[in-house]
Specification:
8 helices; alpha+beta; 199 residues
Length: 199
Amino acid sequence: MHGMINRAIQCFLRDTYGAQAWLDIAENADLGFENFEAMLSYPDQITLDVLGRAARHLHKPVETFLEDLGTYLVSHPNVEAIRRLLRFGGENFTEFLYSLNDLEGRAKLALPDLEVPTLSVESCGDGTFRLRCSSAMPGFGYAMVGVMRAMADDYGALVFLEHSGWMDSGEEVITINLLEVAYAEGRAFDLFGRIGDGI
């Protein structure tokens, strides 16, 4: 797993639960180090071990932990670069949803080594969308539920989200009911931002 993903997990734990919580989880996972390097790659099993140890340490189901992680990735100032990448997808939440079909390509332009989940969005009519997610990390769809919830808030949209399970192909499915595109005022978004924003 790319170090940037592991680093994001570390930052989430540190920023949300405190530095000591992160150190305890790193020790319990037998990492042998205290900090992930964002530009290195790590065996997938290390990431899975950290996620499992973190969920146990925090007494949370892994699914809930992953959803909270997804929300953090979009809403916390320390990872503003991820929000910016997603906000380039459109002026409203509907445009953003359709832009997820191209997210993997956009991300590869910025970081060719980063393994981005393959996402596919289709409209089912009546404001309902189906998001299919294929990732090397089992359960990543739950993180996407958190991402989608935070992005809906970011755009000011009112949505109902549900992780609908796995397809036979292994893809996770998220059902998105877009109840109102402009329910509230969204967060301000500056197209240019600051150089150096991010993890």
